[in-house]
Amino acid sequence: MRIVRFYHINKVLLQHGLDELIPDRLLPWYAKATRKSLFWIRNRHRDKSTGARITLALQSLGPVFIKFGQMLSTRRDLLPPDVANELARLQDKVAPFDREQAKQIIKRALGLQSLSELFSSFDSAPLASASIAQVHAARLRDGGQDVVVKVLRPGIRATIDADLELMFTLAQVLQRWLPDGRRLRPVEVVKEYQKTLIDELDLLRESANGIQLRRNFEGSETLYVPHIYSDYCRKNVLVMERIYGIPISNVDALLAQNTNMKKLAERGVEVFFTQVFRDSFFHADMHPGNIFVSTHEPHNPQYIAIDFGIVGTLNRDDKRYLAENFIAFFNRDYRKVAQLHVDSGWVPGDTNIDEFEVAIRTVCEPIFQKPLAEISFGNVLLQLFNTARRFNMVVQPQLVLLQKTLLYIEGLGRQLYPQLDLWQTAKPFLENWMREQVGAAAMFKKVRENLPYWSEKLPEMPDLLYDSLQQMKKFSQHQERAQRVMIGLQKRANHAAHYRTIGATLLIISAILPLYDSFWLIPSGLATAGLSCWFVAWRLGKAPRVVE
Questions:
Q1: Taking a C-beta distance cutoff of 8 angstroms, is the pair 269, 259 a contact?
Q2: Domain that holds residue 522
Q3: Of residues 92, 123, 279, 285, which has the active-site annotation?
Q4: How many CB atoms are closer than 10 A to CB 25?
Q5: pTM value?
């Protein structure tokens, strides 16, 4: 199966002429020979642009590759404009599957004889089509609310399993043979990616994620999360409130309605950090196809988020270290950044802090006090990668989703308001969060949160205190008894060793004496005495039963 899929991937890449994008000087001789030997696979899209060929190839290869293209589409600083524009089509313009098949899936999932039992209207033409599912516009018969019905692509699990199986094979090869393989931990990263993809195939999980995210931002001016109709959700079908807004990628439409682009970009940063540090629950698939802007108050813009199949969480330690790293980074305290990396275990404990500090300063200092338009994040990421490799920094799989989301946010900010000062926007938020986590206010908050538990346990405290004092009183007695037992066992072990030595000596002598024609009774007596010594040693070696 892996060989067949590997061949298919190479076939698709060659049929779209993507091998032509690699300069000849970078290809080894055996790669060139292999390409020429595949004479029956030719480029079928010579008339199309580079971006169109890449997009078609990724679309042909399925959801794993489509999602990779979605992420690349937000990085216009790393790609030529024509390529980025074509890749943006992957966000919600993937080829749909048969509409009649979609209807049948919905009816089977919801137990309907006809869609009219639940919907007063249902649009057969997909409203949007993505890598995992497609959505149809509809109206509920009960209540008349406009909704969208999300339907999972049929057979998508088999395709994803095949791709992941191949990715695991490649990751294992890389981890074993690349010099940086163990540090980059590609197998663990693929496992993390597998978990997010498999989770995304369960629309019941997505509905729960959407309900949680909506509760976190209830009444917020920065982010609106549509209502999920959980009664109509199944593993392969999801029904959600239909939203009306401007896609975040349609900058012209946003400008036409006089949207405050500076505030919109700043709120994007605020939404990201709020999800990560306040809630520890963040939307981890924030590509432009999943983000809209409300048309109600352009001067006070509000984001609208959809598609909650992939969410990320952070534990308390990772969240604390990340916040401290960000603040130290914003304050240009590279010494603390280096020390935090060591304390968190992200770099080895024997790392030279002074050298690590200098390396981080060399990479980061040039990018401060510059708007996004003047920063080459591609170059910064490359330098950080080289720095990490030099100091054996271990990739943290649990942070991969966060890193991907941060790339999305930075890409959106670049599109919306290139003059955005990312550092000054994020720094006050993180400082306020840190103040809430430490100090008197944080302590009283934790006391208040734990008060119900403590009040429940308080009546038990006298009994627990009395039992603890009794245990402490008896502890010395138990310790003395255990010490006496240990001394006795040690003596028995020493005596047993002596008897074993004497027994072995007597047996050896009893075996030698017959060689000198000695009277048979003497060696027999010595052998008997030796065996008796061994028996005594065995008896002594048996540990006595300890009576409490």
A1: no
A2: 477-541
A3: 285
A4: 5
A5: 0.66
